[in-house]
Specification:
Length: about 50
């Protein structure tokens, strides 16, 4: 794994987390219910 990269005019990456899917969903749910649900759907479908 390498540090994240961005184009010069891109947004600045301030944090990259590597979490197990269910922990990622919990983390996302604090700010974004829709994406948390997408992660849980992927878990339910056996995609992750």
């Amino acid at each position: 794994m390498s540090p994240p990269t961005n184009p010069d005019d891109g947004e600045h990456v301030v944090e990259v987390l590597t979490l197990p899917p269910k922990e990622a969903a919990d983390y996302l749910r604090e700010h974004d219910d829709t994406h948390a649900d997408v992660v849980l759907l992927a878990v339910a479908l056996g995609l992750v």
